[in-house]
Design brief:
Elements: E1 3-11, E2 15-19, E3 22-32, E4 38-44, H1 45-51, E5 60-64, E6 67-70, E7 82-85, E8 91-94, H2 112-115, E9 123-133, E10 137-140, E11 146-155, E12 161-167, H3 169-172, H4 174-183, E13 189-198, E14 204-206, E15 212-215, H5 225-230
Parallel strand pairs: 4-7, 12-14
Antiparallel strand pairs: 1-3, 1-5, 2-3, 3-4, 5-8, 6-7, 9-11, 9-13, 10-11, 11-12, 13-14, 13-15
């Protein structure tokens, strides 16, 4: 029986859907171990009910039993070719003696100057200074639902900038915080985990359901990148 000790870095919402077998439910969460390895765990139906309220982002757990399967790369952006599917026999125990040997998150930053050479729909991590941000607007999707949208410009040490589009709740939470900082005349550093590259009107990036945004990040977590960004010569944030 295998057991892993890992920190939950992301927990998805419980999602309901219907297929040929009837009404179903699913949620997943991402795990990070002390060696920097990441893997996604997924729970379906009764197992989702069993563990959804147990799992909390940021906490460390001992997890054992379950199936190890090839990762579904259409849905799983982590740098691991395998993923876990938990079952009713799986065991999840909180690890209470959390001694910070496992960091809160891991990043694989790509310089903005490299983005133009990447394939459309690539999932990347980017860190930079927010040099401008627009107010939130509402747009109507093709399916008739309304969604919130906000765009900002992100510049990094490569000297290049890229437009980042925030969708949905990212506009209200992180987007509003960034706007407040910018309107105070400061340049917030923004770290992004798992944003998607698109080529609509040129190369840009956008949030997806599994994206994570870190505003004014802890430089001890992000090595020298954040401190160098704060020392960049910039005009007033707008």
């Amino acid at each position: 029986m295998w057991t892993i000790k890992a920190r939950v870095t992301f927990k998805a919402e419980l999602r309901h859907y219907t297929n040929a077998r009837g009404d179903r439910k699913v949620f997943s969460f991402d795990l990070l171990d002390s060696d920097g390895g990441e893997i996604r765990a997924t729970c379906f139906n009764a197992v989702a009910d069993q563990f959804y309220n147990v799992i909390e982002a940021g906490k460390v757990y001992l997890i054992s039993r379950g199936s190890i399967k090839p990762a579904q790369k259409n849905f799983n952006h982590l740098r691991n070719d395998q993923e876990l599917t938990l079952d009713v026999a799986s065991i999840i125990q909180p690890f209470l003696d959390d001694n910070d040997l496992i960091t809160s998150q891991t990043f694989n930053y790509r310089p903005i100057s490299e983005i133009e050479s990447l394939e459309n729909n690539s999932i990347v991590d980017v860190i930079g200074v927010v040099t401008s941000i627009r107010p939130t607007t509402s747009i109507m999707r093709k399916n008739g639902t309304e969604v919130q949208k906000r765009t900002l410009q992100l510049k990094d040490m490569s000297g290049r900038s890229v437009e980042l589009t925030l969708w949905g709740n990212f506009c209200i939470v992180e987007g509003q915080r960034l706007q407040t900082i910018c309107h105070a005349g400061e340049f917030p550093v923004l770290a992004t985990k798992a944003v998607r590259l698109n080529d609509f009107n040129g190369k840009s990036v956008e949030t997806i359901a599994t994206s994570q945004l870190y505003v004014e990040v802890d430089f001890t977590v992000h090595a020298d990148t954040g401190s160098h960004l704060h020392n960049m010569e910039l005009d007033k944030c707008s």
